TrEMBL record:
InterPro entries: CB, DNA_brk_join_enz, Integrase-like_cat_sf, Integrase_catalytic, Integrase_DNA-bd_sf, Integrase_DNA_bind_dom, Integrase_recombinase_N, Phage_int_M. GO terms for biological process: DNA integration; DNA recombination. Coiled coil: none annotated. One of its GO terms (molecular function) is DNA binding. It comes from the Bacteria. CDD domains: INT_P4_C. Transmembrane segments: none annotated. Residues 202-382 form the Tyr recombinase domain. Pfam families: Arm-DNA-bind_3, Phage_int_M, Phage_integrase. Residues 98-179 form the Core-binding (CB) domain. This is Integrase arm-type DNA-binding domain-containing protein.
Length: 403
């Protein structure tokens, strides 16, 4: 017999739970505490199941009957109403919890746990922040290519084409992570690759012939700046590391007795320790520097604070003061110079040069193979390069590849 609102209001609790039917499997469950709970009993796939609709009077009699009828329609279509209700609940939760910003924060946490460099994390956070203003609060599963294009176009409008390209790449990383953890099914950035303005590629400024490079070396060896800046520029020429690897170097990384410098994986771009041989001229520079900064943690501390490293701007500013424009020489350009001149010399295997530059692939077997096979050659190459640098810095302009 169908229920009425009068009957529902008059239902009183008892010592046991009671069930009062409304028909079609719908009933109200009256608990000893006085709660009146709507339930639907049904069978699916041969199993008896129960679906909750909430409590009366929050869910009215009319609403409960509507929900029963909707559930019956799902059953007629071969859909389990309970599974359908759970899916809808998950979708509602995702709309609130699984936003682009929330998933991006999870992704950044993963990147941090993987031990990526602070500079890498800072750049990714900054780029994600550029997109978050537009899509940060949207459920990540609902975001379309058009949604992502909006922040990309805004960055492009400022003429920052390279930033737009990197922004698309980082947003893509967030979506690929979302797919991996089942919070998204596709990466909408894939179709945007051809939509962005291609940035003009410019090579890092570098002097790649011995006569011009010799002029730079003479200027560095005569430079009258701070001890730390002079030493850093000399070592950039002698060792050609990435500027950040040298600027942030700590004294514990240098073994002056064994003539090695081990760059830890936390600062190595390839995310693994990188050991470099130290030629005699580099050892001389480091021993001189140690007399000034050897009691500190950082080998190249900033003038402003001993706990902060020398900045790359400091080195580049020194090059400008020596008369070299930013189109002629930069601190990063020493790597291109060394790579070019070492390869042109014809004396060293390309793989040994790549290993010294820290370009060897991350595969463990390949890494060990390179270190074992090329270490001796790298030591000889470092001494040869150091001698050539010292000769040219003293005014003996020679083509080291023909010496």
């Amino acid at each position: 017999m169908a229920l009425s609102d009068v009957q529902l209001r008059s239902l009183k609790p008892s010592s046991t739970t009671r069930k009062i039917s409304d028909g079609g499997g719908l009933f109200v469950q009256v608990t000893p505490s006085g709660s009146k709970l709507w339930r639907l009993a049904y069978r699916y796939d041969g199993k008896q199941k129960l679906l909750a609709f909430g409590s009366y009077p929050a869910v009215s009699l009319a609403d409960a009957r509507t929900r029963r009828d909707n559930a019956k329609r799902l059953l007629a279509s071969g859909i389990d109403p309970s599974s359908h209700a759970k899916a809808e609940k998950a979708a509602r939760r995702a709309a609130v919890e699984d936003t682009f910003q929330a998933v991006a924060d999870e992704f950044l946490g993963k990147v941090e746990r993987e031990g990526k460099a602070d500079a890498t994390l800072k750049k990714k956070r900054w780029l994600i922040g550029l997109a978050a203003a537009d899509i940060g609060r949207q459920p990540i599963s609902d975001i379309s290519a058009a949604d992502v294009l909006a922040p990309l176009r805004r960055v492009e409008a400022l003429g920052n084409y390279e930033t737009a390209r990197r922004l698309r790449a980082v947003v893509s990383q967030v979506f690929r992570y979302a797919i991996a953890i089942s919070k998204a099914t596709n990466d909408p950035t894939f179709g945007l690759r051809g939509a962005l303005v291609a940035p003009k590629v410019t090579n890092r400024a570098a002097l790649t012939d011995w006569p011009n490079f010799a002029g730079l070396l003479r200027a560095i060896w005569c430079y009258e700046g701070t001890v730390e800046t002079r030493a850093a520029l000399k070592l950039m020429a002698l060792l050609y590391p990435r500027p950040g690897e040298l600027r942030q170097a700590e004294w514990k990384e240098f073994d002056l007795n064994d003539a090695t410098w081990t760059i830890p994986e936390s600062r190595s771009k390839m995310r693994r320790p990188h050991c470099k041989p130290l030629p005699a001229p580099a050892l001389e520079v480091l021993r001189g520097l140690k007399e000034h900064t050897g009691t500190r943690r950082l080998a190249f501390p900033s003038i402003q604070s001993p706990e902060r490293p020398l900045s790359e701007n400091t080195m580049n500013a020194a090059l400008r003061r020596m008369g070299f424009s930013q189109t002629e020489a930069t601190s990063h350009g020493f790597r291109a110079t060394a790579s070019t001149l070492l390869n042109e010399s014809g004396m060293w295997s390309p793989d040994a040069i790549e290993a010294e530059l820290g370009h060897v692939g991350a595969d463990e077997v390949r890494r060990a193979y390179h270190r074992a096979r090329y270490w001796e050659e790298r030591v000889k190459m470092a001494e040869w390069w150091g001698a050539a640098i010292l000769s040219n810095s003293r005014g003996r302009v020679i083509d080291a590849g023909k010496s």
